Amino acid sequence: MRFFETLQYAKDHCKNPTPAGSLVWEKLRNRKFYGLKLNRQYLIEYKQIFENKLYDIADFHNFEHKLIFEIDGPIHLEQQEYDQERKADLEAIGYKVIRFTNDDVLKDWDRVESKLLSFFPYICLNISSDELSESLNKLLNEYYCTNKKIFDFPCNYRLHKVLLFFI
């Protein structure tokens, strides 16, 4: 689709979201999802044919990690070939695309959340230094106790952000 018609379509979807879209937006908006910035109904230029630029709408989008999170309603059962072409176009320009059905989102958010988290190489958490100290002590003590080693981790430093790396 072209820019202005795609933009209008995205605005309409923002004003009239599906129940699953509303639930997800409530969980993701304002950096509620582990401090990550996610956009709703985000326009992406994915192809140019001669002078015409083609745009697509991502249900939810994270720019930093180039992740697109799609929620599929019943219509997507009838347009699977189109969805595969669209996914290939988006992956060709560097995006990762993850899809869930409306039922997945509405009935099992915890599974959706853990699957979504697996696509982020790290997350930034805004926590206080006391919470950080307590969390690090707990994690390290659990690790060293299970490996039969004694270790006492000193937590007398001040940090307000921590990067946690998931391997």
CATH level 3 topology of the largest domain: Endonuclease, Chain A
Helix content: 40-55%
Helix/sheet category: alpha+beta
Radius of gyration: 20 Å
What is the level-2 CATH architecture name of the largest domain? 3-Layer(aba) Sandwich
Please describe the biggest sheet, giving its number of strands, its sense, and whether it closes into a barrel: 4 strands, mixed
How many extended strands?
A: 6
Instruction: Please state roughly what percent of the residues sit in beta strands, choosing from under 5%, 5-15%, 15-25%, 25-35%, 35-45% or over 45%.
Output: 25-35%
Question: Topology of this structure?
Answer:
Elements (H helix, E strand, L loop, with lengths): L2 H13 L3 H10 L10 E11 L2 E11 L4 E6 L7 H13 L3 E6 H6 L1 H9 L4 E5 L2 H18 L14 E5 L2
Parallel strand pairs: 3-4
Antiparallel strand pairs: 1-2, 2-3, 5-6
Could you characterize what this model shows?
The chain has helices at 3-15, 19-28, 80-92, 102-107, 109-117, 129-146; strands spanning 39-49, 52-62, 67-72, 96-101, 122-126, 161-165. The chain is of the alpha+beta class and 167 residues long. The chain folds into 2 domains: 3-120, Endonuclease, Chain A (3-Layer(aba) Sandwich), CATH 3.40.960; 126-165, no CATH class. The protein has a 4-stranded mixed β-sheet with strand order 1-2-3-4, with helices on both faces. Strands 5-6 form a two-stranded antiparallel ribbon. The longest helix has 18 residues, at 129-146.
